[in-house]
Amino acid sequence: MRAEDRYRLRKAQRARTFGRTLGAELRDGLRKPQFWLSLARNSIPLFGVFLWDWDALAMAVYFLLQSWLMGALYCAIDLTFNPDKGTPPRDMLDALGPLLKRFAAAALLFAVFVGIFGGFMLHGFFDKHELADFLDGGWRESSFLIGLAGLAVGCLAEATRFVRSLARRTAADIDADNFRFAATIQTVALLCAISGFLGVLARFALGSAAFVVAAVVVLTLFDAAPRSAAVMMGTNKAGANAV
Question: Is 223 or 234 the better-scoring residue by pLDDT?
Answer without folding.
Answer: 223
